[in-house]
Amino acid sequence: SSKIVRIGDSATRIVKGKPRRDSIINVPVSPGALSAEVKYTAKDSVVFDVPGKKVYLYGDAKINYVDIELKAERVIIDYNTNEIYAEGIKDSTGKSKGSPEFKEKDQTYKSGRMVYNFKSKKGKVFELRTKEGEGNIIIESGKYIKDDSTNIVYALNAKYTTCDADSPHYYIQATKMKLIPKSKVISGPAFLYIEGVPVPFILPFGFFPASAKRSSGLIFPQYGEDQNLGGFYLKQLGYYFGLSDYYDLRVTGDIYSSGSYGFKVLNHYAKRYFANGTVSFGYSRFKRGLEDTYNRSIENQYSFTWAHVQDPKSIPNSSFSANVNISSAKYQRYNQIDVNQRLNSSLSSYITFGKTFKNTPFSLNSGLQHSQTQDGAVNLVLPNVALTMSRINPFKFKHNITPTVPPWYEHIGLNYQLN
């Protein structure tokens, strides 16, 4: 034959319209040949249809091609069209077995059956299920398209839900949906279902973030009314800054119809094998009563918190931790939304440092403690220092030959502690 399709490392491609020769058997390679080797295995059997240029895989079939991996109970490889067909089967109890699992890089799709073209990198999926961000996508039928940057799935009759059950208790169903993995999910008109019953509520469109990376965005506020704090309010309106994988920043503000206001800055930081923690600072200015009247009052409140934990691997033989919680007398009462935190009548803090001196029996622990009540009383205990020497035997000596009964004075021990 003037054109031979071969699967293997020695097969070559057509380059700029000119046929290249196989390095072993020196024959032309088909222009339609794949650019890389297709590896496949099957637990039950592999059947070759040479005239039809097809391979049938039965029983726990597995295919690898470049960065693509496919597992299914039954697979057909068609070299005429460069397509693969994959599907599962049902056992004697009617339960599905060996449903196709399609994996490309870090993205995984599970479906009832699928068709995929190696050359065009397009395919069709049926009964697809995948996880994007915090949500699950369930697709009755869809079209899979891969470009240079990402994989896109165009779906019909798709469901989006945060329920992890096989049959979700609630979901949003859309007639059309576009799924961009690790980025976003966009849908057309959608309906909300609870326990399989449609709710009379229609979404004209849907947009669901599905990014696995940290991203910045608006923080929507809470609204309400509190006559004691200045009438109507918007609380925790702000912005989240996803600065890096090691730290972030959250800035929020509160505003009241009486002119009262406040803000809070919160930072998280973490570095593997070093330390992790949070730092926050809050300030509020509350205006009470009518302006230019005897009961008019203005109160300034503040809060500072710091929680820090050092990783034991960062500095061997030493440890450092902190849990600092300092605020003005009424900050918790005015600014916390949680009832238990608002009613908390006391705050406490501590900072500790410990070190073990290498090749010695000595260790040092130090720290300070802080506590305060809502009436403003503050109690500090500092510094707190403890120097400890573990037990030693000062009169124990090394012997060339270990005596049967060591001398009595070798049993004399000594330990020491300073507080």
Describe the structure.
- The structure is a single chain.
- This protein is an all-beta fold and 419 residues long.
- Helices cover 2% and strands 57% of the residues.
- It is built from two helices and 30 strands.
- The strands form three sheets. The chain has a 16-stranded antiparallel β-sheet that branches. Strands 19, 20, 21, 22, 23, 24, 25, 26, 27, 28, 29 and 30 form a twelve-stranded antiparallel β-sheet that branches. It has a two-stranded antiparallel sheet with strand order 6-7.
- Strand 8 and strand 9 form a beta hairpin.
- The chain is flat and about 90 Å long.
Keywords:
419 residues; single chain; 30 strands; 16-stranded antiparallel β-sheet
Helix count, per DSSP? 2
- N-to-C terminal Cα separation, in Å? 93 Å
The low-confidence parts are 1-20
Question: If you compute it from the alpha carbons, what radius of gyration comes out, rounded to the nearest whole angstrom?
Answer: 34 Å
| Beta-strand content estimate | over 45%
**Mean pLDDT over the residues:** 81
User: Using DSSP, what is the number of strands?
Assistant: 30
Give the % helix.
Answer: under 10%
Major pleated sheet? 16 strands, antiparallel
What is the overall silhouette? flat
Secondary-structure content class: mainly beta
